[in-house]
Structure formats: C-alpha cells, structure tokens
Amino acid sequence: MFKYLFAKNEDIPAGSSAIFFGFSSIVWFVIGTGLGSFNAAKLAFPDFVTGNEFLSFGHMRQVHVHAVIFGWISMAFAMAMMYITPILGNTRLWSEKLGLWNCFLWNLGLTLGLTVLWMGLTSGREYSDFPWVIDLYIASCMAIPLAVNVWMTILTRRTQGIYTTNWFFAAATFMVIVVFVVGNLPEFFHLTGLTEAYLTWWFAHNVLGLWITPVAAAIAYYTIPKVTGNPLYSHRIGHLHFWSVVVFYSTPAAHHLMSAPLPEWLKSFASVEGVLILVPAIAFVSNIMLTMQGKWNMFVENLEVRFTVTGCLMAIPLNMQGGFQQTRAINWYIHGTGWIVAHAHLALLGFSTFLEAAAVYLGLQTLMKRKLYSLALGNVHFWLLLIGFSTYWISMTIAGLIQGAGKIYEVPYIDVVIAEHPYMIARWVGGTMVFVSNIIWLYNMWMTARAGTTVPAGRMPHEMAYER
Amino acid sequence: MAFREYKIGSRVFGLALGGSMCITLFFPSFNMREAVSTEIALDKQLTTGWDAGWNLSDPFMQGSNKPVRVWLESEGQYAYVYPAGTRMPNAVQHPDNLGAIVEKLSMEKGQLAKAAEKGRSNPDGAVFLIDIDQDSKQPYIEYATATRGWNAADVLNAAADENVQHIGAGKSMFVREGCWWCHTLLPEQTQDWQVFGAPPMLGDFNGESPTAFGSDRKGPDLLHVGSRNASREWMMLHFFNPRLVQPHSIMPRFDYLWGSVDADGQKIDFDKWRADYTAYRAGQSPVPPDVPVPAKDSKARALIDFVLSLK
Ligand code: HEM
Ligand code: HEM
Question: Which of A192, A206, A273 best probes binding to B when mutated, by most B CB atoms within 10 angstroms?
Fold first, then answer.
C-alpha cells in the first residue's frame, strides 16, 4: 500500500483502495469482536483479569464499540462504496490515490482514537466519546475524503441515470458529515446540560439512521440484483425507502431519552416518528425479498446471497422491536436493560454486519479476480456468526426482561445481578463464536488473495465453481 | 446531474433534511433555553467546574485543575473553591445558561460579572457560594471573592481536611473509569424512583458537562446513592474490591485508584493483598486482608467524595 501512496493516480491499479479498505475492515472486525468477547468475559467473571487499569471494563467497553462501528462497519462501507460506485457509473473511482490516502489516514486515526479512548480520555458522551480533536480528524481526514471520492465518481459517471445504491451512497456520505459536525457541537462550543445530553443522542441516533442503516441497505440493493441476475423488483419502492429514511429516520432522536426531562412534545413526537421508521424498513425488506423471486435456490447455494438475505430477514425483528420499544407503553419496561444491548447487536451485528460481509466477500473476490479460497470455511464463518449472534441476542433479551421485571417489582438490584449471571456467560460464549468465525474469515480471505483460483476476465466470481 | 429530476430531488432533499433539523434541533432549543437552574444544578456545576470530560485544562484526565467544595462550619453552608489557575465554571463565561432569573440575581446580587473579568485562567483563585433570594425564592451564585473579599487559598487553609470534598476530580474519575457504562445517573420517571429516588427535573443540569446519564444499567442508579448509603468505610471497601461487601457483585475492582501509598504514607503491596484475598476466597484464611485507607490526594478519595455527594 505504501508504495502506491506516492504513485501517480494512473499507475495505481483500479480497485486498490477498495481492497485495502476491505482487508482493513476484516482486521478491525477481528480486533473489535475480540475486545467484545473480552468485555463479555469480564461481565460474566468480574475477576477474570484485574488490577490493570487498561484492562478494566470501563476502559475497554467504548474501545469495542468504536472499533466495530468506525473500524469494521464504516470501513466495510468505504470498501463497498469504492467498489460499487464506479461499477454502477460504468467508470473508475474518481481518485484511487485519494482512496488509498483515505484508507491510510483512517487506520491511523482510528488507532490513535482508540488508544486515547483506551486511556480513558473521553468526552463522556456515548457514541461521540472521542475528544473533539479526534472528532475534527475524523471529519476532515476520514469522512470528507470519502464523500468527495464518492460524489466525484458519481458526477463523472458514464451512465445516464443514477442507480438506487448510488443515491443512498451520495446522500449518506453527505448526511454523516452533517450529523458528525452538528452532533459534536457540544464539544466544539462547550454546550452543557440537557442540550449536551440531547445532542449526544441526536448524534447517536442519526449516525445509526442516516449512515449505518441506509448504507447497509444500499449494499443489498446492489448485491442481490447483481448476484441473482434479477432486476430490482421496484424502483418506486426504492424511492419510498429513500425518502422515508430522510424524513422519518432523522427525527426520533429523543426516543433514546424517554425518561429524561426533555420537553414532552418532543418525546411524543419522537415516539410517533419512530413508528413511522417502519415505512422505510418494510419498503426495503419487501423490495429485496421480491427481487429474490424465482432465485430462492441461491439463498441456499450462494454464500453472498445467503449473507444478504439473512441480514434482510433480521431487519424484520429489528425494526419491529425498535418500533415498539420506543413507545412509552413499552420503553419504561426495557429501557436501560440488556434488551437494548440485544437490540443494538441485532442491528449492528445481525442486520448490518451480514449485509456488509456479503459486500466484502463479493467485492474482494471481484476486484482481486480470485475465487474464494474455501467454501467450507465460508460456510463455517456463516454458521458460527449466525449461531453465535443468536446465542448473544437470545441471552441478552432474556437478561433484559429479567432486569425489566426486577425494575418494576423493585427487587434488590443484587438479585437481578445474580439472576442475569447465566445469561452473561451465554453471551460470552456466543460472542466468542463470532470472534472465532472472524479469524476464520480473515484466514479465508487472505488465502483467497494468495491461492484463490483466478477468475477469467469478463466473468463474475459467483459464476465459477468452488474448488475447495 | 443532467436530469431535471435530480435538480428537483436535491432541493427536496435539502428541504426534508433541513425541515427535520428544524424540528429536532431548532424548536427544542426554545424549550431548553427556558430551563432555569435549580439549586441542584448550581451545586453540580460549581462542584464539577468547567468540564469533567476530556478538555484542555485536564488533558490526561487526572482530575487536576478542578474545584473543591468546602463545608464552612461557621456559616453552615458550602463554599466552592477554585484555586488559582483552575478554569472557572461554565456560568462565568456563559451566564445565560443559568436561565433568566438566576442569571439576573447572580449578576446583580452575586456580582458574577466580576468573575468574568478575571478571564478563564483565574489567576488569583475564586470562591463561590449559593444563596437563596428571599423575595423570589430563587437560588443564585454569589462570587464571594468580590462580595466578601474571600480568598481561595485562605478558605482552603482554614478548612479541616474532612470538610474538603474533591467532587470535581471525582466526577472526572467517574467519567474516565467508565462507571457510567454500568450505572445511570437518571432515575426514570416511572416506578424507578421508589427505589432510586426522585427523577431529575428540567433545570437540574444547566451548566453541567458531561451529564453522563448512561444508557445501560448493570448496577443500581447512582443519582441519589449518597442518601441511601453515606458510609465512607463501605464505599472504601466496595471500590477496593466490591466482592468484599457484596460477594455476588460484578463490579470491577478499582484498587488501582489508590495509587502507590495509603493515608499513612505506607507503600501498598497490591500483589500481597491479592494473594491474601485469593487465600481468603479459597477458605484458607478466615478474614479478608485489610483495605488500606486511601491517601488524601488519591483518586480513590476524590471518587468517594463524588459518590457521597450524590444525595
Ligand atoms: C423502526 C426502527 C427502529 C426504532 C423505532 C428503534 C428504536 C430504538 C430505541 C427507542 C432505542 C433506545 C431504547 C432505550 O434506550 O430505551 C434504540 C436503541 C438502539 N438502536 Fe434502534 N430502533 C430501530 C431500528 C434500528 C436500526 C435499523 C438500527 C441500526 C442499524 C438500530 C440501532 C440501535 C442501537 C445501536 C441502539 C442502542 C443505543 C444505545 O447504546 O443505547 N435501531 N432503538
Ligand atoms: C460487528 C459486531 C459488533 C458490533 C457492531 C457491536 C456493537 C456494539 C454496540 C453498539 C454496543 C453498545 C450497546 C449499547 O450501548 O446498547 C456494544 C456493546 C457490547 N458488545 Fe458489541 N458489537 C459487536 C460484536 C460483539 C461481540 C462479538 C461481542 C462478544 C461477546 C460483543 C460484546 C459486547 C459487550 C459485552 C458490550 C457491552 C454491553 C453492555 O454494556 O452491557 N459485541 N457492542
């Protein structure tokens, strides 16, 4: 990679940035889930590793969250954008060189940021934990270069129209910058009190809603039609999805603070808008499912389709859960419990990770022109991920319901802690399966680069048979 | 962008996103500006100072450059002492955050504007008090250095150590050590308050940063923990090793906050302590080893001061 950083743009092979982003994202995935599994072990066995400040739960938790969100999810997004945007515009990436620099600065910034968090240096605001200096770095060296590359590639496209995936990419790269800058205003201008608390959740909510959700969905809009060969079922529904994300998903930030003394109208408004997020959710899932018509055999036979469809199917419980849990009638029961942690992992480890993994599988094979090294390892990855995640989700959901019951029946807190213990262990086991599956994936991808069968020019990897 | 549709589309997009930001940011800002500081809010912002999260006056989050709260026996009230060089509280630079009435009282009766003249660096130190206005029953900040000529160093020197509370530094520890990943500072507006105490009111946070509400609970809410349990001894044992007082606790040990020496200046032998404790857990010893008393300037002491101040 370093040799290309100072090369002329024309000399850099097409797809290099996407490949580097792809491998970086898998490495961060391994690191992030490893940290997750370590944290889970600490919650299950509090004396597991002790006496070292830097290995204590309070120092490690935010490192896990940021490693997976900024390292795995967002870098996989960058990979997908640098791979898919040019293809859909029938052109090359606007600047491979910018892309490589972006990847380099991203890894550097993230390493720095996570080290700072690890030392406990945090703004004290969940999801915007990075100190404002790092926030400025993220905006200027990570988000803006990515947006410039995506936008310029779309503007210099050689097709007439813009395909659904690319509207989403363009809009999301723009919105995430706005969200990032506005959401961190409390740190830049030292806003305090309830304003700070509200903007914290405004940021967190919109990063999920205007970045992670639409980009993950956009990826599926590409993978499914591409691999199955079916055209997208409906562009209209795609429009409905797009516009309802912008209008509905950007408004219910206050539903994360239903028990704080925010203005009542704001909480009620958020609660109603939150139910309306079901519109984009249903539009998206139905559009993908209907595109699958006649090709359901590929759900079983093809790894990328299996990942994508599983992710889409998980969007159903995710959004049903979301829509209901934020009404006042239900929120008071499950707020602040493991239920929310389960919901968060269903969103990020279930729904979005499965879609991104498909894109990384597909993109790396296509760009490196290599067939996946081993189908067997790919299957092991899929099943370990799915079973591990399900174990996590089920155990934390149960733990959350116990906590909720403990909360309303005013059980002494320690009894809740005791009752949750078995589920904490189950979560750790499930999470560790996810971690192990990712190591296998990294190995599989590495071997693909080294020893995968070459895909002849003009063919797609999924058209070839597996050799192992 | 050849198509007319794309031009229209981008405009509608701007309108949609702008509209949503207008509703979710601009409109609520009116309500939030109306919030008037309560006495609780004044106490919180004066005890924790400018910021308890990462900021330039405490870049390594060691709890340095933080104010202390001093109990004045003679006056029967607290003084908030900002030693020379400590960054002034938020209300000094942004008095409008206090809410209209409290701002007016603090300016007129409390002479808060004189503190602003000292600038952020606060070269001579400052002492603040919280008073209640008899007519309006509203609390306000009094800049005692101007109104009564009190000097920060003098107030500190005159106070006995048990009357000095390092709450500001303690809150930094609370943020740095990630207590808020397991504990909320926000009893909910539903049944919760019967166990954890009253949920906070609208004006209870003005000027506080970060609020560190927390979103997941793995332990009890702490907003009023000081009224449930005011025992310094219990807190000391519990932070050193929660399993000493609560065998089923999953809370981590915070023994490293003790630093290297205890209150008597003796070196703390952590390895020996842990070995003795393991022996106790294994049933080889009938009693657990003694927990060292934290030194006066240790981080553990600041944290305990903070937790006990949560009334
Ligand atoms: C109809 C759709 C959805 C609704 C109405 C919804 C609603 C909510 C609510 C109300 C909470 C906070 C609950 C509480 O703390 O009391 C929450 C948490 C969360 N949601 Fe969703 N959600 C939806 C879909 C999604 C999606 C699609 C994602 C991500 C891709 C997502 C990611 C998260 C995460 C990560 C959290 C945890 C935040 C924390 O740390 O507390 N949700 N959701
Ligand atoms: C790509 C995969 C993953 C993503 C995107 C992810 C994301 C997150 C997020 C957003 C949170 C904050 C949740 C909240 O505040 O509600 C969180 C917390 C956590 N995650 Fe993950 N996670 C992933 C994988 C894992 C794995 C494999 C484990 C292993 C067990 C794990 C263990 C944890 C733990 C223990 C917490 C702390 C929960 C708590 O505070 O109660 N995560 N993760």
Answer: A192
pLDDT digits (tens, 9 = 90+) for A173-228: 999 999 999 999 999 999 999 999 999 999 999 999 999 999 999 999 999 999 99
Whether the per-residue pLDDT at B193 is higher than 80: the answer is no
Alpha carbon distance B69, B208 (integer Å): 16
How many other C-beta atoms are found inside a 10 Å radius of the C-beta of residue B117?
8
The 10 Å Cβ neighbour count of residue A115 is 11
> Is B214 an interface residue toward A (CB < 8 Å)?
yes
Confirm or reject: Cβ of A314 under 6 Å from ligand 2. no
Return the residue matching tokens 């003009």: A458
CB A108, CB A61: distance < 8 Å: no
Chain B residues lying within 8 Å of A236, measured CB to CB:
none
d(C-alpha B307, C-alpha A191), whole Å: 24
Give the whole-angstrom CA distance, residue A164 versus residue A145: 22
pLDDT value for A8: 86
Q: Could you tell me the two tokens for A103? A: 């990847």
On whether any CB of chain B is under 8 Å from the CB of A46, the answer is yes
> What letters, b where the CB count within 10 A reaches 16 and e where it falls short, cover B122-143?
beebbbbbbbebeeeebbbbbb
Architecture of domain B171-308: Orthogonal Bundle (1.10)
Nearest CA, atom 8, ligand 2:
A65
8 Å CB contact between B152 and B126 = yes
User: Which of A198, A276, A325 is the best mutation target for the ligand 1 pocket, counting ligand atoms within 8 Å of the beta carbon and taking the most?
Assistant: A325
Quote the tokens at residue A79.
């990979």
Structure tokens at A153: 């590639």
Q: Decide if A175 and B17 are in contact by the 8 Å CB cutoff.
A: yes
Chain B residue with the nearest C-alpha to that of A46:
B250
Chain A positions in Cβ-Cβ contact with residue B45 (cut-off 8 Å) = 192
Instruction: Compute the distance between CA of residue A399 and CA of residue B171 in angstroms, rounded to an integer.
Output: 29
Yes or no: say if B259 and B288 are a contact pair by the CB < 8 Å rule: no
Name the more confident of B4 and B264: B264
Ligand 1 within 6 A of CB of A42: no
Per DSSP, helices labelled H in chain B are 4-21, 27-34, 39-48, 90-93, 100-108, 112-117, 144-147, 152-158, 167-176, 193-196, 225-228, 232-240, 270-281, 299-309
Helix extents (H) in A70-212 = 74-88, 96-118, 132-137, 144-155, 164-183, 185-189, 193-207
Q: Does residue B181 sit at the A interface (CB-CB below 8 Å)? A: yes
Chain A: residue whose CA lies nearest to B195: A410
- For chain A, the straight-line distance linking the first and the last C-alpha, in angstroms and rounded, comes to 29
Residue B119 contacts A, CB cutoff 8 Å: no
> pLDDT tier at A4 (50, 70, 90 boundaries)?
confident
In the predicted structure, residue B2 carries a pLDDT above the cut 70: no
Q: What separation in Å is there between the alpha carbon of B208 and the centre of ligand 2?
A: 28
Cα separation of the two ends of chain B: 61
ipTM over 0.90 threshold: yes
For B:130-159, CB contacts with A below 8 A are none
**CB atoms closer than 10 angstroms to residue B290:** 10
Task: Give the start-to-end residue ranges of the domains of chain B.
Answer: 39-168, 171-308
Cβ-based contacts under 8 A for chains A and B: 217
Matching residue, tokens 């370590």: A38
- The sheet with strand B68-72 has its strands ordered as B139-143, B126-132, B77-82, B68-72, B164-165
Q: Which of A146, A141, A158 is nearest to A80 (CA)?
A: A146
Give me the residue from A131, A332, A414 closest to B54, CB to CB: A131
Domains along chain A with CATH numbers: 13-449 (1.20.210.10)
Q: Where are the alpha helices (DSSP H) in A184-245?
A: 185-189, 193-207, 213-228, 235-244
pLDDT at position B136 is 93
Contacts A160 to B, Cβ<8 Å: 2-3
Contacts of residue A203 in chain B, CB cutoff 8 Å? none
